[in-house]
Write a structure and sequence with these properties.
single chain; 290 residues; alpha+beta; Helix Hairpins; SH3 type barrels; Alpha-Beta Plaits; 3 domains; five-stranded antiparallel beta sheet; three-stranded antiparallel beta sheet; 53% helix; YbiO_bact
């Protein structure tokens, strides 16, 4: 075997060793990723079981508070494990911790703005939690976006609106919050009757409906009460009914009130207004009403 053949053989051996080294490192990275995923899954399950027990305990957290803390801790767990995983993988690739820190310091200048936003989101998230501005399950309006809170995470808050759209809002951008789930809510129903009908009779019929509703619905805190005639429109007189209900129960009460009032008015032959149009026939001088 000549010297040229020996050089080729040595090159092949070097490439073979390099390939084995890369394969081992790739296998280690895959194992690290699997371990991280398993730890996150197990940790999330433990957190969920803990807070489920808290919700059932007399001295534990209420349901909304427990769900909020559960989602927050899961979010923190994910971020911590992602960081550990990245550091572990960099070490497998041959980068020492000192090198990683040095590179991170240099890169920190370039991503400083992003890091500032991240820190702002995290700090805002903690303030939202500790000030109890809202919790998972609350119906809120945040800067013009409304929906039920699905997640209060370390960095973002997720809202699900009635159409099913999911709004993801960075915590640091939240300026104004309207929580519609705290305290009693107002149920409001407007009923317009025709001008030809007896308003006093209609009001008495609505009052009877209100009394029955109050007895049957535990979620009604106060009322329903007839405020009186609040408007005269092109079609008729508007009678307003209001009630106070438990949080998030107002819509159901409003729909039931409308249905019952409509049935009661129909039974007593109180007509709701129908839009009318007057057509003038100038040629014949006749008037037709439709």
């Amino acid at each position: 075997m000549n010297s040229k053949d020996l050089k080729i053989l040595n090159l092949f051996k070097f490439d073979e060793n390099l390939l084995i080294s890369y394969s081992i490192n790739l296998l280690k990275i895959i194992i690290i990723l699997i371990l991280i995923k398993i730890i996150i899954s197990i940790g999330s399950s433990v957190i969920q079981r803990f807070f489920n027990k808290q919700k059932q305990s007399k001295f534990g957290f209420n349901e909304k508070k427990a769900d909020t803390l559960s989602e927050l801790l899961k979010s923190i767990l994910r971020y911590v494990m992602y960081f550990i995983g990245i550091m572990w993988i960099l070490e497998v690739l041959g980068l020492s911790i000192k090198t990683v820190i040095a590179v991170t310091s240099v890169a920190g200048v370039a991503v400083g703005l992003g890091a500032q936003n991240f820190i702002k989101d995290v700090i805002s998230g903690f303030f939202i939690l500790f000030e109890d501005q809202f919790a998972v399950g609350d119906y809120v309006e945040i800067d013009g976006l409304s929906g039920f809170v699905e997640t209060v995470g370390l960095r973002v808050t997720k809202l699900r609106d009635f159409s099913g759209d999911l709004h993801i809002i960075p915590n640091g951008s939240i300026v104004r919050v309207t929580n519609k789930s705290r305290g009693n809510m107002r149920a409001l129903v407007d009923i317009t009757i025709s001008y030809e009908e007896d308003i006093d009779k209609a009001i008495n019929i609505i009052k009877d409906v209100n009394e029955k509703m109050k007895k049957e619905f535990k979620e009604i805190i106060e009322g329903p009460n007839v405020l009186g005639v609040t408007n005269f429109s092109d079609y008729g007189a508007t009678i307003r009914v209001v009630a106070k209900t438990e949080a998030m129960k107002q819509w159901g009460v409003e729909m039931e009130l409308r249905k019952r009032i409509k049935h009661a008015l129909d039974e007593n032959h109180i007509a709701l207004p129908i839009p009318k149009r007057i057509i003038m026939n100038y040629k014949k001088g006749e008037t037709n009403g439709n």
